[in-house]
C-alpha cells in the first residue's frame, strides 16, 4: 500500500510538472505606484485576506499619502482603494505583514514602527477604513512585530515580536493585551560557526 501511495504521488507530481507553460493564466490586477498616493512595495510575506465582500485586503510598508505605508483593498476586477494611510505617528508605521480577517468581519494587522513609543502596533481596521490601534508596544512587552497576527479558536489574536529577543503575545479584538512568553538569550540559539 505504501509503495502504491508513493508511486501515485510521484505520478501526480510528474503530471503537474509536465503541463505546458502556455496554459498558465496570469493577469496583473493593479500596478502599484501608477498613481500618486498609491501603496508601494507590498512585502513578499504580507498576508492577503479576502473580505466578506469578496475584495482582497492587505498592507504595504511604504507609500500611501504619508509614505509610512497603507492598508488597501482591491476588487477581483482590479479597482484599488487606499483604505488608510499611516502617518508614522501614534497610528503606526510600515505595516509589512498584511492582514488577517477576523470572525467579526474586521481586519487585523501589525506595524513595524510608529505607535505611542515608536516600537510598533497591533491594529484593527474595518472594511470601510476606520482604523483603531489596539496596542502600542514599548519594548518591555515586545517591539517590532514583523509578522502579522492569527486568530485562535478562543477569538483572541496571537502574534510575535522581533526585537529584544522577542515575545509571543495575545490580544483581544478590544485591545486586552498580554505577553505569553518573553524570549531570553537562553531561548535563542547561538549562531552556528562558519
Could you explain how this protein is built, in words?
The chain is 8% helix and 30% strand. Mean pLDDT is 84; it is low at 1-19. The protein has one domain: Methylamine Dehydrogenase, Chain H (7 Propeller), CATH 2.130.10. It is globular. The relative contact order is 0.11. The strands form four sheets. A four-stranded antiparallel beta sheet has the order 2-3-5-6, with no helix packed on it. A four-stranded antiparallel beta sheet has the order 7-8-9-10, with no helix packed on it. Strands 11-12-13-14 form a four-stranded antiparallel beta sheet, with no helix packed on it. The protein is mainly β. It starts with a helix and ends in a 12-residue tail after the last strand. The chain is built from one helix and 14 strands. It has one helix at 2-17; strands spanning 39-40, 49-50, 56-60, 62-63, 70-74, 80-85, 100-101, 107-111, 121-125, 131-136, 150-151, 157-161, 167-171, 177-182.
Short summary of the structure?
The chain has one helix and 14 strands, in the order αββββββββββββββ. The chain is mainly beta and 194 residues long.
Amino acid at each position: 500500500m505504501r509503495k502504491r501511495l508513493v508511486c501515485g504521488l510521484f505520478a501526480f507530481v510528474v503530471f503537474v510538472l509536465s503541463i505546458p507553460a502556455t496554459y498558465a493564466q496570469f493577469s496583473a490586477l493593479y500596478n502599484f505606484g501608477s498613481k500618486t498616493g498609491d501603496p508601494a512595495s507590498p512585502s513578499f510575506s504580507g498576508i492577503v485576506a479576502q473580505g466578506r465582500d469578496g475584495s482582497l485586503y492587505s498592507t504595504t510598508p511604504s507609500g500611501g499619502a504619508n509614505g509610512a505605508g497603507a492598508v488597501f483593498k482591491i476588487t477581483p476586477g482590479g479597482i484599488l482603494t487606499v483604505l488608510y494611510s499611516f502617518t508614522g505617528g501614534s497610528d503606526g508605521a510600515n505595516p509589512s505583514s498584511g492582514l488577517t480577517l477576523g470572525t467579526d468581519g474586521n481586519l487585523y494587522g501589525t506595524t513595524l514602527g510608529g505607535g505611542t513609543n515608536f516600537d510598533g502596533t497591533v491594529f484593527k481596521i474595518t472594511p470601510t477604513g476606520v482604523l483603531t490601534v489596539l496596542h502600542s508596544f514599548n519594548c518591555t512587552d515586545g517591539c517590532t512585530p514583523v509578522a502579522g497576527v492569527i486568530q485562535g479558536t478562543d477569538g483572541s489574536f496571537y502574534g510575535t515580536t522581533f526585537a529584544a529577543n522577542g515575545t509571543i503575545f495575545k490580544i483581544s479584538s478590544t485591545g486586552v493585551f498580554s505577553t505569553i512568553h518573553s524570549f531570553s538569550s537562553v531561548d535563542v540559539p547561538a549562531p552556528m560557526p562558519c
